[in-house]
Amino acid sequence: MANRRWHLLVNGKVQGVYYRASTEQTARRLGLTGWVRNLPDGRVEILAEGELPQLDALRTWCLAGPKEAVVNGVSVHEETPTNEFTGFRTIH
């Protein structure tokens, strides 16, 4: 059961550089649930649930992303966890 839910928005050159796929792999490795998707404005949006240390590790990873990415910033908004997810996936 997740005790935290974070909504992250990632700015920069983060589309077309395997950011979503790498985020999904990282989140799964960390044991998080939720999803990642591209936004029409060029940002990547992530909704993740899990324990604070794992969410913090995901945020730290997001600041760098895959080697082709250029991250200008990551905003994090905490929300109430719903425990609605059973895994982590890329959505469209």
Alpha-beta content class: alpha+beta
**Total beta strands:** 5
Cα separation of the termini? 26 Å
Low-confidence stretches: none
Query: Which strand-content bin applies to the residues?
Result: 35-45%
The percentage helix is 25-40%
Q: Largest beta sheet, briefly?
A: 5 strands, mixed
Please give the order of strands in the largest beta sheet. 4-1-3-2-5
Overall residue-averaged pLDDT value: 96
Q: What does this 3D model show about the protein?
A:
By secondary structure, the protein is of the alpha+beta class. Helices cover 27% and strands 39% of the residues. The protein has two helices and five strands. It has helices at residues 19-30, 52-64, and strands at 4-13, 33-38, 44-50, 70-79, 88-90. The protein has a five-stranded mixed β-sheet, with helices on one face. Strand 2 and strand 3 form a beta hairpin. Helix 1 packs antiparallel against helix 2. It is globular.
